[in-house]
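PROTOCOL LOG
Step 1. Enter all chains and additional molecules of the complex.
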Amino acid sequence: MHQGRTGRPRSPEADAAILAATRQALVEVGWSRLTMGDVAARAGVAKTTLYRRWPGRNELVVDAVAVLFDELELPDLGTLSADVESVVRQFGALLDRPEAKTALMAVIAEATRDEELRRRIRTTIVDRQKRLVTAGRRRAEERGELPPPPGPEAAARDTDLVFDVVAGAVVHRTLVSAEPVDADWAHRLTQLILTGLTAQRAPGAGA
Amino acid sequence: MHQGRTGRPRSPEADAAILAATRQALVEVGWSRLTMGDVAARAGVAKTTLYRRWPGRNELVVDAVAVLFDELELPDLGTLSADVESVVRQFGALLDRPEAKTALMAVIAEATRDEELRRRIRTTIVDRQKRLVTAGRRRAEERGELPPPPGPEAAARDTDLVFDVVAGAVVHRTLVSAEPVDADWAHRLTQLILTGLTAQRAPGAGA
DNA sequence: GTCTTTCGCTACGACTCGTAGCGTAACTGG
DNA sequence: CCAGTTACGCTACGAGTCGTAGCGAAAGAC
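Step 2. Run joint prediction.
Step 3. Record the structure below.
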């Protein structure tokens, strides 16, 4: 269907060039002024080639941005606190890139009225990155920092909750508050998530 | 400047009609297909009237959505936990409305490339709602649930952090994970924020 | 009444959209 | 080597939206 085994094959270089051109265009002109014709010209391909591969710019932008998120990693730093802080900083640095912040919010906005686009975002971005939370939790349990989850479904709900809190806070900080995710903020967010608001001012947690 | 004291005054009813028409259009056609001509037709005014009052649809949509956020309240429910949970649920219900979720994300996306629009969002929406966090914190301190902040600047940073976490988590849950902010989730988020991840599984917090 | 500003309306060039049609290029199977 | 099939670049098209300009009429201020 998408790739019958006869005829001229689609150029993989064109794919890469189009996605790169999309990211470049997002940086320079932003979302609302990004046009398919502009992307095609930057990529050195015909406009019709874009429409043969993507239904519209929403889907194109999702694919163009998705690869950025695969750069996130979870190195084992020895403690849950350090692991969380590392991911927070990485995610903050990622969202600091203009092509990521602009595109991500715009696409999410469109997805509120487009079920299929929402699924595309979930499968290509969100679900792929939940691996960070599950891996961090597993390590923390092995170290004895966290009790084992009472059941599989409760564990899944916890994963979703933590993911929403971490990703949501970083996104909100970066895009709405428009302030940087620096080392200090990452540290304070981590402490809040681990020990909570009531214990956050405990002495000995010196800044 | 904005209102010289001579000449025909601007019609306040037109203002209200335009903002209402904008919200209605957001619900029916969404952000990307919202046009100024469409809004003007719905409001029963001329297209030129819109351009006399707003520079473009970004600014128009910000103003149209801002009033929705003023509905948020912080009733004194006796405990910090109950207060937080109440705000989480209210904010979740607000973001469940299609005109709010679509418009908010789209405008934030545009704001990543528009400094003035970013300021408009901050002054008309974000800063206005930080009152909820500061009021909740003050009450909690009066009850003895939280220690007083070590200093004014630390208090401001804490307010910003909590606001980013709460608002970000609700937004992410609603728009990215696309799952409802129900009573159970609101309760679990509140517990996470207050007591932290390490204490969240403590016995006796029975669901 | 006179002055000033807003209003509704129409019209305009410029731009983008998504599609269709054409000839050519690339690769497959007989 | 030669059809068959698909992708490609290019051009052109009607449709829709943009933001602005110009006009006469309406609504208050003085």
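Step 4. Note key features.
Residues 5-9, 11, 35-37, 47-48, 51, 56 of chain A lie near DNA strand C (CB under 10 Å from a C1').
Residues 115-143 of chain A form the longest helix (29 residues).
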